[in-house]
Amino acid sequence: MHEGLPPLPSLFAPLKLAPDEDARARAMALAPERGGGLLPWLAAPDRIEAALVLEPEESLAAARAGLLAAASAAADALVVLGPPEIPVTLRWPAGIVLNGAQVGEAFLGAPPGLPEEAVPDWLVVGIRPARRHPEGYEPGRDPGRTALAEEGFLEIPPGELVAAWARHLMAGLSEWQSRGFRAMAERVLARLEVEEWMEGARRGLDPATGALLLRREGAADERRPLEAA
Question: 66 near 108, Cβ under 8 Å?
């Protein structure tokens, strides 16, 4: 076992954190020293966090689309591990949705102060799904949010979910590299919820920035950028 995870390829360097730590912050702090493949993760009573350090070859602006790859990989992992009847979708820009309610989100971390056109030495992508609602939570208080325990994922060990996410993420990034940005974009768009502000528009992703493009006949393209790290 790798730090409490199922076996993973040697390119990963898992690092189990204490439940009160922050996987994104730890990954960003260690990335300059440890480099690509570092995988800090934690399982707290209320959430699971995992972050992976990447070493992109494109500009920061283009590499930000790794946020979408991380969210898509989380959806892939949940589909494989969860009850077959539970729909898994994505909510722009990086929300992870189970059964119509958001269970968590993907996140991004980049070297501070780096210009968008520069190639970063490292980039961090990760996920933060809710494991259980906090103690004292009133059911139905926020119907737009859910937790893994409420959707039939309680029996899945957190390490198994983290490992599945990491494997799906690397497979997705490999496909992106070999088949181009369009392959990854198609996977994201196929799972992306059609919200009210998207209705009637053709959707696409900008390969230069990962921004969502909405095209309506007779109107200028609308852009919804990825949130800055």
Answer: yes
